[in-house]
């Protein structure tokens, strides 16, 4: 992959595919982490005299113009963070986009409206996607791929446009790929992975692949209850994927045969209902009352997980340990995050809810070796998949 230093960008229109898919409460951005992660590449290009055209998606408008998915709040925040005006185009490849780009001077930045307003962006039809990509490519002279959170998607702005323009990889994607190679090619050992989140089904392939690579696999969050049930324990009203029980039993058997230390919760916080103020108690993970549901790992599990991480040399964490959005059930996620901060290991937070939790809990981002901007992309890389957006950026 070519880096930014291999492109002559002065005076040229550079289309940057960024990942600005931030959470919104109305038009208020509740976590600007992805915008901040995009700043270095945008600043570098602008500093070299490029006319920078940023494109990105937000949410899932599914090819329709829906005001609640407008990137207008992102343009405002991007301008604040850059300390420079950011021109905002009211469409993606229409009159506003063309006029906005035409008005750019060297070193200036513009943001196009939500890519996913255009049906061609996500089209499964190669011709429809390529046609939209051609219209997008006409706005620019060069392309820089820097939206790591979207590289696992075969979308026009990610896959087709870089095949139509001279291209390079931005600093964010370059850093992400470097980190993922460290996790997959020759990780320092012991290598521990912590997986959480709601569903086992979301992580079937990554678990299968990791069982061939890791020394320890710690399972928390909603997915842990399917593992506990697979061992024959009562899980009450906890999240359970009955259809995955046989698969999970297979994982347990493979871990045992490979000598992988697969660690499950030993106690949990069992609540009367899924609510922030729900009555709850600490119970053994092997004896969850039938009328309760697990919403977080318990204090003994937090200590156990911290012990398992203490001497690790490499740690990858993806997925919260409980319903961290509720203060009463955020302790498990905090405990894992703090264990990583204390660790001297190479520690990687795998994007998505894990990265959001780090920020929500007020933990120092520089306490981790790397915080990924793309949870889904990171997981698919760790599954061993080829990612369309990375393939398109190869020379």
TrEMBL record:
Pathway: Carbohydrate degradation; glycolysis; pyruvate from D-glyceraldehyde 3-phosphate: step 2/5. Pfam families: PGK (PF00162). PANTHER family: PHOSPHOGLYCERATE KINASE, PHOSPHOGLYCERATE KINASE 1, CHLOROPLASTIC-RELATED. It is an enzyme of class 2 (transferase). Its main location: cytoplasm. This is Phosphoglycerate kinase. Substrate binds at residues 19-21, 34, 57-60, 116, 153. It catalyses: (2R)-3-phosphoglycerate + ATP = (2R)-3-phospho-glyceroyl phosphate + ADP. It comes from the Bacteria. ATP binds at residues 203, 294, 325, 351-354.
